[in-house]
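for the writeup, i need someone to sanity check this before i put it in the appendix. the sequnce is what the collaborator sent (i think, or maybe the updated version? ugh). structure was predicted straight from it, no edits. if anything looks off just tell me and ill rerun, i have time this weekend
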Amino acid sequence: MKAMIRSGVGTRKPLEGDQVIFHCTIRTLDGVTVNSTRLEHGGKGYPNRYVLGMSKMLLGLCEGIPTMLRGEVAVFKMKPELHYAEVDCPVTAPDDFPKDVELHFEIELLDFFKAKIVSEDMGVVKKIIDEGQGWECPREPYEVEAWITAKAADGNMILPRMNNPYHFTFGKSEIPKGVEMGIGTMTKGEKAVIYVNNGYLSESSLMQIPEGHEEVQFEVELIHFTQVRDMLGDGRLIKRRIRDGKGEFPMDCPLQDSLLRVHYKGMLLDEERFVFYDTRVDNNGEPLEFCSGEGLVPEGFEMSVRLMLPGEISIITCPPDYAYDRFKRPANVPEGAHVQWEIELLGFEMPKDWTGLNFQNIMDEVEKIKSTGNRLFKEGKYELAKAKYEKVLREYNHVNPQDDEEGKIFLNSRNALHLNVAACYQKMGEYRKSIETCNKVLDGNPVHAKAIYRRGMAYMLHGDFEEARKDFNAMISMEKSSESDANAALQKLKQLELEAERKARKQFKGLFDKKPGEISGAVNISTDNEGIETQNSDGKLADPEDSQEGRESSVAAGEPVEPEKLGFLTRLWPSGRRIFGSLGLNRCSIL
């Protein structure tokens, strides 16, 4: 039963999910106080705080509080089964509490509001006072600027407003854990009260909160935060956003092959912060234009711009290996220099959609992208070159030649791209993938001499000499014009086999000349490929820029090598080497 002592204000009443804040005094029916939150009745002086439908509450309170208005005072007369005598009561009764009798619960509903549950145990709950702007919230390792004050649960100020806002780095424990968790749910410009219980009041370097408080209310106004992104995860390549862009991250960021326009200033991270390039000064005020994925800017530069929005300004701190140690170095940038770029992304154009293009226009686009891939290949950027070739191959899935002539052009172009990808894999040392890529061409044309040749080279580089010999011999029987290339490759293959056998013979030398019982040491069989040449001096092995479907010679023909007389163990070595390799053994010890 409810008796209203003082009416409340407004019309809204608490709903499930609202946080309710109230004082509670419990008395027996004859007026004896047995428990209270109020200081004058022996309590601690601060009110209860619960979230309806989520916190552990007495059944009578769960039913009674939703009938009240803000500021209302009411008395609820409860039978035992609706308070602490409830079956499986979620709340433990105080010591010597008369839980088996009817009681009066005097409730003053101080406030209620829609709560943001920050921690699952409700040790951190947020009340939004003013909504913020945008969607992004601070997270590790963002740099944050905010006004913060704190009150005890009884309303006493324990952390007054400072002359300047707090500046801290998210994730470095510079403020109490619960406050940081709450701020992590706020947007720029938002004002909120964050209720933090003592389990989340961790020690911090910027705030000293007195001990002994079961709960502290932090009033926070989030002024600004700077997006700090650790691009590599090791703290070496850092992107700091100093001006927001327009759009939604990451949907409105540049895609692969987008044409980007940026202004940037490059500085050395030395004491003088020497500026080695500024587009507004050194490029007649014109922005830099480049296509992403073409390797026209350092890797760290492109990685960062790809995560920017139009209009955004960011400062990038970059280590040498992602700056100019693996890129064309400006004359005034020393080797091993750490650099910093201040980049403004003015805008970008999305890659062209091939939908609706005629066959000739598509092939023109193919040649542009393929030319970029060939340039990257010549510069030794094999991963980037491969990405360009594979992009065209993916687009080819949507191309439908209209006649036999277009079909022939399309097939030749696709085969050439596959072989360029195979050449990239060879340069990257991924010989099995190179073989698989060559097989994609041979599945449609088993007598494609260039594909057989490139596959044979991959077999040879991988150490599969017998498979390589089969491919080179097949070239001879298949096409007379490729005989010279095949013979040169066979000659090189013979040299590699002899070199491997000489290594094996040298390591086994004297092993079987010993008498029984004298073999006390171990002889290691090396599987290193030292001295193996993967291409001739003119670099023809992996020239993807050559789009003609002719044959290419990748190994210079040498003088015939007289094979040495081979012993039994030497003859056994190539097969044994492959067996050890298939078992994952780099060296075998023979006792």
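The longest strand covers residues 103-114. Residues 175 and 378 are 52 Å apart (CA to CA).
thx in advance!!
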